[in-house]
Amino acid sequence: MAAFAIGDTVQITGSVMTGNVGTVVDVDEGRGRYLVRVGAVTQNYFSGDDLKLFSS
């Protein structure tokens, strides 16, 4: 499951929030999900399949 780590900058590729770039702030090993924060107040959990590492 360790495809992403806390602090990684990722781009969301799934059907929700597609194209947004955020930072992984938590890893839920039990559910296989990553909490990604986008901006100051928006965050959501995503599976690893819905994310890719962001490179500018």
Question: Summarize this, please?
Answer:
The protein has 56 residues and is mostly beta strands. 0% of the residues lie in helices and 48% in strands. The protein has strands at 9-12, 21-28, 33-38, 42-47, 51-53.
What does this structure look like?
This protein has 56 residues and is mainly beta. The chain has no helices and 5 strands. Helices cover 0% and strands 48% of the residues. It has a 5-stranded antiparallel beta sheet, with no helix packed on it. The model has no long low-confidence stretch (mean pLDDT 94).
Summing up helix and strand content along with how strands pair, one would put the structural category as mainly beta
Assess the beta-strand content as a share of residues. over 45%
Distance between the termini: 25 Å
Q: Count of DSSP helices?
A: 0
Any idea what the shape is? globular
Q: What is the helix fraction of residues, given as a range?
A: under 10%
Would you list the SSEs in sequence order as H and E?
EEEEE
Residue windows where pLDDT falls under 50 for at least 5 positions: none
Mind describing the biggest β-sheet? Answer: 5 strands, antiparallel
Strand order of the largest sheet: 4-3-2-1-5
Radius of gyration: 10 Å
What would the average pLDDT be, to the nearest integer? 94
Number of strands: 5
Assembly state of the chains shown: single chain
InterPro entries: Rib_uL2_dom2, Translation_prot_SH3-like_sf
Organism: Williamsia herbipolensis
Protein name: KOW motif-containing protein
